[in-house]
Amino acid sequence: MTNRPLVRWWLRGLVVLLLGACSAADEDMPPGSLAGADAIRRYGCGTCHIIPGIEGALGTVGPSLAGVARRVYLAGRLPNTPDTMAQWISNPQRFVPGSAMPDMQVSLADARAIASFLGRRR
Amino acid sequence: MNLTPAIYRRIATLAGALALVMATAGIMLLHGGYNVAATAPHTAPVFALLDYASRRSIAVRARFVVVPPVPADVALGRGLAIYRDHCVQCHGAPGIAPDPFALGLSPAAANLALVARERKPAEVYWTVRYGLKMTAMPAWEFRFSEADLWAVTAFVGYLAELSPEAYRDVAARVPAPRPTTPSADPGKSPPDPRRGEMALHQYACITCHEIPGIVGADHPVGPSLAGIAVRRYIAGTLPNTPANLVAWIRSPGTIKPGTAMPDLQVSERDATDVAAFLSGLR
Questions:
Q1: How confident is the model at residue B43, as a pLDDT?
Q2: Which among A61, A64, A98 is the nearest to B237, CB-wise?
Q3: Does the pLDDT of residue B155 top 90, yes or no?
Q4: Distinct helix (H) and strand (E) counts, chain A
Q5: DSSP 8-state assignment for residue B78
Q6: Beta bridge pairs of residue B51
Q7: Which end of chain A is more exposed for a tag (fewer CB within 10 A), N or C?
Q8: pTM summary value
Q9: How far apart, in whole angstroms, are the C-alpha atoms of residue B207 and residue B220?
Q10: What does each C-alpha distance from B275 to A44, B49, B189, B242, B243 come to in angstroms?
Q11: ipTM score of complex
């Protein structure tokens, strides 16, 4: 068939495009999300939460954080913005006294970095 | 049969025509060509098709409904009270218009005096109990007991016989009905995950939570319920036990004041069935 090479050419183009899309997604990472991933590991958030993008973060004590940036509410009552998310992370007991989520002494800067990391994974 | 080139050509033409129709439909959908506005009525053929499908669907399913006798005083007492408090708002009554909001519904709620003349009681009961998809008619199965569903069905049967005057007269005399009652007693039947799945629709859980296995339940208002069966805590504070889960579903505001999860007046049996369904989400 005469169009075989053409098909192969198209497929090759498609593969290049897909690979390009993948690496482009990694480059999209805003500054601070690497710091966020690092902070998530340091505070051990993954022992209680499933967190896509963090190896070993498979905890089932609290809710999964997959797609948490799209959630309307945090902690069952806080309207979800990057700012309220950082506040909640740095001081959960202030918002839900008696919450099983402990105060991990997360600095506001770390909390913001974590919120930024969680915010870019939709 | 001999597959001549002529037959091949005919098959190719048919396949081409089919592809063209599908491509056209796809482009129309992509460009929002179908108008979902309630103010844009169906075309006559579409309306005729949907109306026929709906009538047949109800008639065939209502064949299996066994109609119990309902005393007139129950129909004109409890039945009328339920009708006045939960049906008039959309359907109106003799001489009484539906509420203004209901006038904007599409399809408009049917005049039930006419329905009383033209439809069988079994069909009315079936429609009240299960509701009608893609219309504003809700299912009442999870709101009223079997006896109440039959009481209001029986009352609809009287609608065509009541003059506007007579309706106003009897409606004014009937006291407010007791609060809505769950469809069955708790404890009498073992927890039923299939009923729980229905309850997740009927209490609108699906509008706020992602729930694996339920079509359309993918809304991130509250947390996803994926893996809820193996979660250590619920509501951030309660150890996840079946009893706690039922308590939380029934009364979130008591357990966590200020929570965005509202009290949906879930009966004990319904909450138990929901918990049974959720216990399968590992």
A1: 94
A2: A98
A3: yes
A4: 5, 2
A5: I
A6: none
A7: N
A8: 0.81
A9: 9
A10: 30, 40, 14, 7, 9
A11: 0.74
**Cα A50 from chain centre:** 10
Q: Which residues of B touch A73 (CB under 8 A)?
A: 221-222, 260
| Residue B235 neighbours by CB distance under 10 Å | 21
pLDDT score at A25 = 42
How far the first Cα of chain A sits from its last, in Å, is 45
Q: Which pLDDT belongs to residue B145? A: 92
pLDDT at residue B50 greater than cutoff 60? yes
Q: Do B144 and B232 touch, CB atoms closer than 8 A?
A: no
DSSP state of A68: G
Q: Is A71 left (phi over 0), alpha (psi -120 to 50) or beta?
A: beta
A84-115: pLDDT as tens digits:
999 999 999 999 999 999 999 999 999 999 99
- Arithmetic mean of pLDDT, B243-270: 95
CB-based contact (8 Å) between A9 and chain B?
no
**B22's tokens:** 């599908």
Could you tell me the pLDDT band of residue B114, with boundaries at 50, 70 and 90?
very high
Distance, CA of B174 to CA of B172 (rounded, Å): 6
The pLDDT score that the predictor gives to residue A34 is: 85
Q: What's residue B6's pLDDT?
A: 87
A73 — contact with chain B (CB < 8 Å)? Answer: yes
Q: What is the pLDDT of residue A11?
A: 55
> Cβ of B244 under 8 Å from any chain A Cβ?
no
